[in-house]
Amino acid sequence: MAPNEPTIASILRDLANEYDAVVPASEIYGRVLERRPTSAKRPESVIRNQLRTDGPSMGWVSISPQELIPLHVVLQGLRFRLTPSAAEIAAGAIQALSLYPFIGADEATPLQFVDAAQRPIVGGFSTLDLNKYRYLRPEPAALSLGGWMRQAGVQAGDSLLATVASVTPRVIVLEREPAAAFRRAEAERQDRELADALVALTAIGSRAARQPHNSVLAVFARAAWRTGYPGSAWQHVVQADRRLHLAQGALIENLNTTTMFTFLMDEEGQSKLESNLLHEIFAFQHELLATRRQDAARGLWDGFSARASSAQTIFDLEHHAQQILYGGKINTLEDHTATIEENLSDLEYEADPADAQVLLGDMPSLGFGLGDFEPIDDVQSFVEQNPEVAEATRRLMASLTPDEQRRLDAARTMEDVQQVLGPHLADLLRTEPSLFVPLVAKGDGSLDTNGANIQAKGAPLDLSGLPSPDLIAPDLAWSDDEDGDDWDEDDDDDDWDEDDDDDDWDEDIDIFVDSRQARRAMARSKALMAQFVDYQVRHRKSRQTSQSRADDLWLYADFLSHYYGHALDAGGYATLDEFLFFFYPRKVMNSTERHVREICTSVKQFYAFLKAEKIIDDDAFASAIWQRRDQAARVIQLFDQVDSDAEQFERMFAHLFAPYTA
Prior knowledge:
The chain is of the alpha+beta class.
């Protein structure tokens, strides 16, 4: 850069003085480039990044990716609240961090405090002794107000109301508000608006923590109450909201946008995250209970579930014995919270984690986590020490088209990522097998025949209870032949081995269902699904769409045959509830919110077909289940947030899948 050539920051500061309203960001980028031409390929991104990281020091606030507003416009007349602690009152000073971002975001601006009568408050920079063990933590910077707080009679519980009377120079009017004068209703209404806006803002784009200058200031810039009666201090609003976390006294984290790096969160943040999630689970279970009771009142079912899929058969290979664990029929219209909590309480005193699984049925035990793998504390170091990881990632990314790479960069959820990467994985398994970790069976001397080994996130894969190939890849079981004859070809009883011993244990067949009965049920379900496809085609649905609808039914058909020995025409509200809210989220690999909604839609259409063909008398139960499709998706969403290493993992798991875990 030539001597005396203006910098991007100096140009932005000059431009800020020329505007007094919201302005398109593109206009400001263009004006900067007029004064500071460059041959860079993406000069706008350089300006955008500077504004995002340090906008207020350059005179600007980013209120959206497309809009900017001058800082002086935001601050002029802005009012905010300070709630001094006992230590601050005793010291006659305010911790500097509590003033940010309204004061300090543009450090070069002179600052002067005055009282309501415009009398200067003489003070200066200081420190606060908030920790008697000073060597553990440095004293925080503070702004001394001299003797003003003592003269104004500030007491514990009082607030200081601050008003920006002038931006340049920066003049702040301070007034004492006694605790008794606090207008709670007005403040709480503003606090809710601020919290909701921060939640929405921090959920956009990067999931990293937000600085107050590009979050709090952005919200205040648009708020109708910016110059009105102040609500609570923004730090208190963040700390009080279950969806947000205040890190290091200033950074705002959205607890609903968890990522693979949540292990970096401090202990307080992790505890709050777990507590919030458990609160959501309890609220969700309250909603489920109400819905089940309403549908029972409509006569759609009696509320009882056999919950066959919750049963386990534990084999002790050392002693050649087996044990059946089954809690029996359960009334889903009752609240089983107390029972689950009692089981959890008993679990705390169990010495053997294997005994805990007995208490909670299908729930993974206390020791079910990362197994022999050490947690990754430093991702960068891990990649440096394992160059094959970086190479595998490079080869995977190289297989993507530019459009797919763009979609991957824009992905915000694991489902979005799967939509991009999923189509490539099968081809890569064939062409680049070295990219995949070999699956090794892992056992501890006991096997669960019911596939109750749903993997905790990050746990080694246990192959002892894999479902049938049909369940893993139902598309492979469907014939391309349009007449559907091949569906029944391999299921004729005459083709079965006459020496098939029903007493032999089949991992895919539930202990309550005879293997021949399960196969007959599945054969009938296949025939019904074939008829369903033909019915859809006759009613002017494409064969591809009709086939897709039938594919959605396969999982439920497999569930019915394996656990109940029933075909699809014997399905009903109780088994659909068990399938959607207990079996599917836990035991179907790569279950997604989108897929479970599709299943609900396909179930509704299939049973409407059965009724139209007079195969069943009523399909009202299927319509009721379809109306619960958002609830079915919510189970998966919540389960995705449950961390197997969380301190309250067992509690969250048990309550999320209640009442089947009771």
